[in-house]
Amino acid sequence: MRLPCGQPPQPSRGTWQHGGVTTATHSPLFSRESEGSQIVAPPRDADAVLDGLDPEQREVATALHGPVCVLAGAGTGKTRAITHRIAYGVRAGILPPAGVLAVTFTNRAAGEMRGRLRQLGAGGVQARTFHAAALRQLQFFWPKAVGGELPRLLDRKVQLVAEAAARCRIRLDRNELRDVTSEIEWSKVTQTVPADYPAAVAKSPRDAPRDPAEIGQIYGMYEQLKRERSVIDFEDVLLLTVGILQDRHDIADQIRRQYQHFVVDEYQDVSPLQQRLLDLWLGDRESLCVVGDASQTIYSFTGATPDHLLNFRTRHPNATVVKLIRDYRSTPQVVHLANGLLNQASGRAAEHRLELISQRDPGPEPVCTEYGDEPTEAEGTARRIRDLIAAGVPAGEIAVLYRINAQSEVYEQALADAGVPYQLRGAERFFERQEVREAGAALRGAARFGGNDSLLDDVVELPSQVRAVLSTKGWTTEPPTGSGAVRDRWESLAALVRLAEDFVRAKPTATLADLVAELDERAAAQHAPTVQGVTLASLHAAKGLEWDAVFLVGLTEGMVPITYAKTDEQIEEERRLLYVGVTRARLHLSLSWALSRSPGGRASRRPTRFLNGLRPGSTAPGARDTAAGARSSVERGSAARRRQRGPARCRVCGRTLTDAGEMKLMRCEDCPSDMDEALYERLRDWRAEQAQQLSQPAYCVFTDKTLMAIAEAVPGSAGELAGISGVGRRKLDRFGADVLAICAGEELAVDDEDT
After folding, report:
1. Cα–Cα dist 500/446, whole Å
2. Listed residue (269, 289, 291) closest to 76, CA to CA
3. What is the number of other CB atoms lying within 10 angstroms of the CB of residue 682?
4. Cβ-based neighbours of 754, under 8 Å, separated by 6 or more
5. Phi, psi of 519 (to 5 degrees)
6. 419: confidence class by pLDDT, cuts 50, 70, 90
7. Residues 536/408, Cβ–Cβ less than 8 Å
8. Is 313 left (phi over 0), alpha (psi -120 to 50) or beta?
9. CA atoms within 13 A on the CB side of 125
10. If DSSP codes are grouped into helix, strand and coil, which group holds residue 407?
11. What mean pLDDT is predicted for residues 118-141?
12. Are 323 and 291 in contact (CB under 8 A)?
């Protein structure tokens, strides 16, 4: 059987892909960011830890000696591989749990790693961020190495930077203040002192936000103010730890006796300072496992560099290198587009790109949409999201991703107007929300004094107890209508109810006290349950997350790549950023752009160069067209039509059309229709059969608007059918013969090859 997008045939269902590995990554307890998060009983022994791993993951898990480098593509189960590796080593008695330190870059990732290790029976292993691990060591050894108490950690360095600028008689506006603060952070993680900043920035691909000499002056004054007030900042935690370990060999030896084995996740994001700390932790040993993907390096502006990952084999010639390329997250269609993006990349990271192979069944093609202006793009995106939710995709499994946070406002408004709940990624943490804190206090009180609480008199089951307690805080069986603060509060409480339901399924004898303990552990790890709302996030904030449906919006030149990306290296990082966005999607992927900023504006924008050759009607650099371009469906918004043919007008009343749905019909929604109702019903019946055979929602075949347009036009040839918006070359080739036969009143053969 030939599969779409040139993917090789899938293995039979008797193989490991379908026998043990969980290809879908859903977890009802966490925000579906990765698989394996369910609460389950630990494996019975070390060998059972290896059950369900694919051959490459198993190779990672059993490579316990010497340096190991895991090159892991997006969605290939890297966290699964390394946590099973640690657990296998611990359960087999090879790795002492207290002697393992696993480090990553976010509290969420560290919390997830701890949770998985606990489930695998390796709960004694330390999993922390670089900064958290360094801070613990700094707090413990500071009295011995320096004396006295560790200086206070600065909450917000931007305020002190503003004061430093004022001391230097340099005026900074709000944006410049933020940029200068970022420059100071970059200087510190690259171990650049204030006097060397101008020379260092001149040698780097960075563009200083203002005169480098002035920034160096502000940087120096900032450091002076910190010393005067006895405070340290986030970067100082690493710098001071490095300093102590370099100067005090006795302390370095004590830490090396404590930790004999190190695992580093997201190794492509390591800064020179973090690498220096890692070298000091290791000493002359090579008991190190690193995991990363150079194609997901998107934080170079913070000092991150993939060089340490790419040079690992040079530094450790005897290293075991394993590549994970089996993608369990995304469909072949999504993976094909992602591979196409990297096929056009250049530079050193591109030379080490991983060609992913999807392990999932085929899904809908990615959709490219061109809109006339940004509000129309936001409204069109909101309508598509509403359609997905109506088709059964949970709101929490949908994301809208953009390049900069300033783009969120128009999508917040569009989703609110469409009655779709949403949440902003990077906003207040789940366990810090007032309603969650109040709910936790209420559950804790009920667990302690439940015997005297009349609310729980007739309630036995744990989920029922939770519902009863949370009903006093605003939870109801039915959600409130609309969006806003009331809906946000309800969604938070509903997430706790779902967590209780899943918790008792995994642990039938669990009590309310057990659930409270579980909540406390998750709060400490910032490992929140799912809140059911569409996620709005920047592409950078989306790293490490995944959703069933992803809408990548605002994909124009000047935004992706961003206008200040000038050098080849900066442009390639922008390409990788788009690649990260594409690989967040499991099933549905939409890419869109607007030709102007506001309605009536000049249509001067162009879609991002990164989609050249990957979207219909475009050609890749060097005139190399790709199959991905032919396999992506495309729809054009109103501006494209206006640019080519003048204003689109209703064929009934003559009014200028701006709505995408009305553009399909070439008439106003409320104008009289001359549609052949019987033909429309036959087309709907045919579409339902196609959707069932393809295991896709009906709208993936043709939308209702497109079917209405067909029933109104009654095309008699392929050319006439192709002229209807929403058909496109791919759907014409796939469904055209059937549709024309139905329009001609013919009966379709039951075993038609196209079905």
Report:
1. 14
2. 291
3. 17
4. 734, 735, 737, 738
5. -65, -40
6. confident
7. yes
8. alpha
9. 35
10. helix
11. 92
12. no
Q: CA gyration radius for the chain?
A: 28
pLDDT greater than 70 at residue 699 = no
**Rounded distance, CA 475 to CA 460, Å?**
19
Ramachandran class of 198: left when φ > 0, alpha when ψ lies in -120 to 50, beta otherwise? alpha
Q: What 8-state DSSP symbol labels residue 32? A: S
Tokens of 376: 């129309």
Q: Cα–Cα distance between 493 and 499 in angstroms, integer?
A: 10
Alpha-carbon gap, residue 176 to 322, rounded angstroms:
44
pLDDT at residue 656 tops 70: no
Position with higher pLDDT, 263 vs 446: 263
The CA-based dihedral angle spanning residues 358, 360, 363, 368, taken in that order and rounded to the nearest 10 degrees: -30
Give residue 628's pLDDT: 42
Tokens encoding 576: 């990788």
Please check the confidence at residue 290 and state whether its pLDDT lies above 90. yes
Structure token digits, residue 505? 């399924």
Distance CA 170, CA 214 (A): 8
pLDDT of residue 525: 57
Closest C-alpha to 590, from 388, 361, 409:
388
% the chain with pLDDT above 70? 82
Q: What is the mean pLDDT of residues 691-703?
A: 73
Residue 443, both tokens? 């559950």
Give the position of tokens 């390394």: 82
Report d(CA 727, CA 393) in Å as an integer.
24
- Closest C-alpha to 665, from 731, 710, 628: 710
**217-to-160, 257, 315, 471, 727 alpha-carbon distances in Å:** 14, 42, 37, 57, 61
